[in-house]
Amino acid sequence: MENNCTCPPPSKGKLITVLSIDGGGVKGIIPATFLAFLESKLQELDGSDARIANYFDVIASASTGGLITAMLVTPSPRNTKQPFYEAKDIVPFFLKHCPRIFPCRTGFFGWFCKILHIIKMIFGPKYNGKYLHKIINDLLGDMRVKETLTNVVIPTYDTKCVKPTIFSTFKARSKTLMDARLADVCIGTSAAPTVLPAHYFETVDYQTGASRSFNIIDGGLVTNNPTLVALGEITKQIRLRSKEFPETKPLDYHRFLVISLGTGLPEQDIKFDASHVAKWGIFGWLCQHNTMPLLHMFLHASSDMTDSHVANLFKEIGCSDQLLRIQDHNIPIAAVSADLSTEKNLQGLIKIGENLLHKPLSKDDYEISHMESMPKDNQHTLTYADMLTQFAKLLSDERKLRLQNRVGWVS
Predict the structure, then answer these.
(1) Euclidean distance between CA atoms 346 and 27, whole angstroms
(2) How many alpha carbons fall within 13 Å on the CB side of residue 340?
(3) Could you tell me the CA-to-CA distances from 312 to 112, 233, 368 in Å, in that order?
């Protein structure tokens, strides 16, 4: 392996471990809450030095998830085998920086700013993105995709090529022109249309003189839930007989262990019937209930479809217990916006994440459209905190097995 991962590859163990993080702007606070809990459980099992990046073969993310992933996989200057941030640092990071990334005011000036933003969105993006670009560049510097502590998969959409562009550690190690600065990838995958400006950058192969340009926007337009993209990239590596993956075995989905973290879906009363939607013009589609319905529906439809496909796959192969999807399907209308950065909303997002941890495990039934409890043992209905605790044990056991089998492995 050419990256800095301190854990031996899947070929030394039994499982292929995947973490997926949805996009959602400030709602990234919700999965960040789950990650802090998961890392705390890993630390209880394996010591205070345990970090998320030590346990996952691939971390896939879109939009705001890309920034979260960068924080989890960026090597610390003091110890290049450990990330610069712990998972518990992500929520404070959001609380500190979101009000400057998405500036807003309340009261009379708040209404004035909303009107100004609507006018601005006619001619350009709602925010200029300068502060976001600064903090991402300060955080990541010139670090390249291939230098992450574990493999990352980050979808974007190239507006000039008119097709998805998937950045990954796998590609970066084999294709110099795909080894972009991680900062550029994070800025691009966060560039939601109408909200933040598209991002242009180039990569150069200094040995051959070849170069490639990228014109990218929000990875959520490709897939707001990047779980399937991650599975696809891993499948390619297995087909190519990558050193990280078993070289002689065919693809076996029974080996996958997946944790997929959502950023929340709205409660029922934000959904609009056809008679209402039929009256909308361009402004109606761009502004309703402090949200942008067109972008909102597009992103969440993508997430729902991925939820359904992945759940059905794991169910058909009899491995539903190796997939954990955490998604709140009833967040309040006030918390739906991806750029509402008031103190009240940000604190409310923390509470949504913390409350969901202690709710009974649920699943979304796509045929009858209602939530259904899933009792898993004879004592009580398991909560999402219980499930994360169980998955932490599986991850810990897998890492210990790989470390025992690491003879002949070079990081």
Answers:
(1) 8
(2) 19
(3) 47, 19, 16
Measured CA to CA, the distance from residue 185 to residue 201 in angstroms comes to: 9
Cα–Cα distance for residue pair 402/261, rounded to 1 Å: 25
Our answer to whether residue 339 is catalytic in this structure is no
3-state secondary structure 24-65: CHHHHHHHHHHHHHHHHHHHHHHCCCCCHHHCCCEEEECCHH
Of 20, 61, 63, 396, which one is the catalytic site residue?
A: 63
- pLDDT per residue as tens digits for the range 155-203: 999 999 999 999 999 999 999 999 999 999 999 999 988 889 999 999 9
Place of tokens 């605790």: 389
Q: What is the DSSP string of 106-157?
A: -HHHHHHHHHHHHHHHHHS-SS--HHHHHHHHHHHTT-BGGGSSSEEEEEEE
Q: Are 296 and 311 in contact (CB under 8 A)?
A: no
Catalytic: which of 57, 179, 184, 218?
218
Question: d(Cα 278, Cα 276) in Å, to the nearest integer?
Answer: 5
What residue type is assigned to position 404 of the chain? Q
Please name the amino acid found at residue 110: G
Q: Which residues does 192 contact at the CB level (< 8 Å), separation at least 6?
A: 23, 25, 63, 217, 218, 220, 295, 338
Where along the chain do its domains lie?
Answer: 15-408
Mind giving me the DSSP string for 286-338?
H-BTTB-HHHHHHHHHHHHHHHHHHHHHHHHTT-GGGEEEE--S-B-GGG--S
Tell me the β-bridge partners of 153. Answer: 60, 168
Each residue of 130-147: pLDDT tens digit?
999 999 999 999 999 999
Angle at 143 between CA 139 and CA 146, to 5 degrees: 135
Residue 273 is a catalytic residue = no
Average pLDDT value for residue range 330-347: 86
Structure tokens at 251: 């693809």
Cβ atoms of 125 and 192 closer than 8 Å: no
Q: Which pTM does this prediction carry?
A: 0.89
Give the right CATH number for 15-408 from 3.10.105.10, 3.40.50.280, 3.40.1090.10, 3.40.190.10. Answer: 3.40.1090.10
**189 is written with which tokens?**
């995958």
